[in-house]
Every structure is written in structure tokens, then in C-alpha cells.
Amino acid sequence: MSKKEGLFEQRMQRHHDELRWLYMELYNNGDMFAELCDRLKEYDRVRNPKLKRLDEQREARPGWFKDRNMLGMMLYIDNFAGTINGVKSKLDYLQSCQVNTIHLMPFLDSPEGRSDGGYAVADFRKVRPDLGTMEDLADLAEECHDRNMNLCMDFVMNHTSEDHEWAVKARQGDGEYMSRYFFYDNYDIPAQYEATVPQVFPTTAPGNFTYLPEIGHHVMTTFYPYQWDLNYRNPRVFNEMMYNFLYLANQGMDIIRIDAVPYIWKELGTQCRNLPQVHTIVRMMRMIGEIVCPGVVLLGEVVMEPEKVAPYFGTVEKPECHMLYNVTTMATTWNSVATRDIRLLRQQMDIVNRLPKEYTFLNYLRCHDDIGWGLDYGTLRSWGMEEVSHKRFLNAFFTGREEGSVSRGELYNDDPRLGDARFCGTTASMCGIESAQQEKDAQKLEAAIRYDLMLHAYMLTQSGIPMLYSGDEVAQLNDYTYRENPAKAVDSRYVHRGTFRWEAAEKASDVSTVPGKVFRGLRELETIRKEQNVFDADADTWTIDVQDPSVLVIGRYKDGCQMIGIFNFHDLDRNITLNEEGTYRNMLTGETQELPRISLPGHDFLWLLKKF
Fold it and tell me: 231 with 170: CB under 8 angstroms?
């Protein structure tokens, strides 16, 4: 037995009994489990030697992805550089942004016009032809690894496109493939599901089932009619999807984002969200990864309130996802922007700060998706804010219809009857850069740039991995041209998924321009974050109450160094008194700052440091 084979056997031995126990509990199928184990060995055998060496390095340093120098950027390949090879040619630019983790938004083969932004996958082993090939992807991954950069991709586990090979055969009436989805020849059982399962897109895609008249069946489609939910009660579905996962990992992916994790398991009489079997599946996936590709990190997309997000980390002894999106904090951040009130944000940050240090969140201000107002309305109600009226206020504020708002953007899935909607817009447009430029108001523009940088500084202060959205580094604005494209016009999320403005990137070094001011400001913040150990994942982190609902104060401490981050969410100057005294150093200017009293301009921030 070679050394490499020995490593595989050691890893398999470490996880075999638990993996088998969970698999049999879920499926009670020894033959399918035996097939799974055989295929794991085969995927290990064909894994690239370079990737195996990287696996060993990361096994020796399992918290590698928590380093404070980690900085991600999510981007659409076509919008950013045309093709995968185009992205490869732009790695110098990404490194100039200090980015070392690239999240490639969905790029697998999907039908044009029926892809939900690439989340309706027709072939898990084929790249969209206009973007390149799997060979191009593997080459990009290798080049990234040579530069100490990482690649992240989406793995859409919950559903396939209706054009997927399985779905095509199911539509033809093939029972083997129909069993891989949820098919019903009458509406009785779908009606029972509908009684308990919420709708994801009640306006653009109402209901959870789609009728196929050509075969007289209803099929479960939680998201869109062309996205058919996979039936994970069928062990063949689990096995095949794990083979797809390993195939993609073997192309050189470092982080694999599991899309729509809570939805994976369906159970009649429930909401089909966050069921125990989902955790079983994710735990098995974690072990499968640790057996074949232990250098790969699982990032879970769980768009839920905090108490439902944390369980997807698993436990310290039996972990599930390595990282999770800090979704609730993101949405509550923008609530704080609109209300100038950080109380709810501080309360939620306190919850996150109390979690074990082993738990790692991915922090971001914006992503490819809309912002849903999934806030803690129980707490807001106790402060006099009712859910419907508050959502209407937020949507009016961010579309610029509320008096005093400088934000610009568009609503998504607007339901006037319920006053409910989600919001779309780039960070720069939400902060007022777009409206200030339209009004040609230099003072407002400077304030908007300051707000943009303040929010990024706040995001970088949080514990976890910061993730930028492509274009934010040069203050890219909303792109309204999507309305002219029939395939995109119905989906307002494309307002912030616009083509990257390379002309703005060319101004990044010119600090007299808006792109240059934002680019320079972000670089300065990112450099400080990399250099200071108070930003380490294991640093103590807490919030400080300064008796001003507009000012968020975050403390961080490690190895005799204490940092205090102060963020003014109000447009007016604020004077606060901290419970800290002494002389601190301004981390950006190097000047000294005497505490406890602080005066902070509107939408400004301070990063202060003291060594004990």
C-alpha cells in the first residue's frame, strides 16, 4: 500500500463507523453504502497529486481558512471578465484588491432564460459553454493555488434544472428517474404540502408545485417551475450528488458553497425547512469531504434567523459546515442604516460573539441576491415597530421614496397587498453615491463615500471572513440596463449584477475620483486588518453600550492588544462617552486619541488600538 493509499485508509477508518451508522439510519441500504465507499476510493485515486499535497498541508493546519488575511470577492464570470480564462487574466487585478478567495458565481451548464442566475443546473459536470470548459476551470484553480489564492463555487444540492438528464427522463415517464424527484399523479398530496410549506417567491413563482400536463403529474418546485426539487429519501440521489461534489472538488475547488441547505429534506406535515435529516446529510457530506478532499471547506447558505443558523455548524465534536453566511447580521445592518438605530444589530452581534470560536461566519454587506427583511420583529415590536409598516418604511427608504433617503435601488418580489418585498441595489447606490452624483452635490458625495467606507470598516471588524461583492471596491452603481434584456427584465436582482466597469477600475489609483477614493480606503482598511492580531479569529470580541442608539462600538482583544471600533450610523455628529480611559492610537492616521470622550462626524468611524 502506498503512502497516499494509506492516508485514504486512515481517513476512511476515522469516519467509517459514523458514516455507515448515519447512512443506514437514513437509508437502511447496505449495498448503496458499499457502492459509496468504493466510489470514494476511486475519487481519491484520481485526485490530482498537487491537490493531495494541499490537502495534507491543510490537514496539518485545519483552521487555515480562518486567517485574518483571508479576503473574498464574489463575481459573475461573464460580467467580470467574459470567460474563465478571462478571470485568469485578471488575477493581477484581484491581487491588487488584496483578494485571495474568489467566489465564482454559478457557472455550470444551465438553460438560458430558465436558470435563476445559474441556480438551475442542467449538468453538474459541464461548464456553461460560453464561459469555458472544466479544463479551463482546473487550470484557473491551479494558477490560483500557485498564487496562494482560493476558488469557491456554488453546489446546488436542492434541485436540478428541468433540462437535467434525470428530469428529461422523468418527464418521459421513467419511474427510476421520477423517483429522484417528487412526482404525484393528483393534487391530494401536493395540497397537503402546500398547507404547511411557505412560499419562497410568492409573487414571481407562487406555490411549491408545478403541473406537467404532458404526463399528468405534479412535481415539487420550491423555487421556480424549472427547478425540480431532488428527493433525498432516495439513496441514489444522495450518492450521485456526492459523486458530483467530489468531481467538482477534484477540479481544484477550495470552498464549496452548499446552496439552500435548509430545504434539502422534505417531510409531509412540516415546513420542509431545517429538518433533522438535513443535518444528517450535511454531516455525511462533511465526512466524505474529509475522507477524499480534506482541504476543501464547506460553506453553507442558511438564510434563517440566528437560532436556526448556528446548528448548521454541527458541534465541535461532530462538525457540519466549516463556514456559514452571516445573513441576519447583513440584513440588520441595512435596517440600522435606514433607522439610524443599532440596537437590534448590537443584540444580534452579541449572540454571534457568544458562539464557540470554532464557528466561522462569512461576513458581507451585499451579495448576488436580494436583501430580505427577515428581522427580529418580536424585538422590534417591543420598540414600537410593527412588521408590515416597518417593511414598507425600509422599502421606501432604500428606493429613495422616504424623505431624507439618499439610497437608490429596486424592489424584488413586491407584494403590495402584504406590504412585503425584498430589496436590490449595490452598496454604493444604497449609501448615496448614485444620488449624489445625479444631483452633482459634492458635499453629499463625500458623505456617501464616507458612509460606504464606514460600513466596510464595520464589516471588516466582525469576527469571520470578509467577502466583497465585485464592483464594491470601485463604488460601482446600479445598472438599470437589465430592463432592456427580455431574459432579465422581470428579475430586478440584475440591477446589482451589472457588467463590471473596467473603466472605473482604471481610475483606482486616482484618488481624485470616486473609484480611487473607495479603492484606496478599502486597501488601507484591509492592510491594517492583515497586520493586526486583534483581528484574529480567536480574539475576544464584544460590543459596548454607549447609550446612543446610533453608535455601534465593537471591542476586540488579543495578546495584550485592545481595539475599539466606533461606527456612527447617524448622518449627524455624535458625542459619546466610553467606559474605557487612556490613550489609544488611531489605526488609520497614527494620531493619539484620549478616551473616554469621543466626537464623531456623521457616518464616520474610528479604529483605535491600545497595547497593555
Answer: no
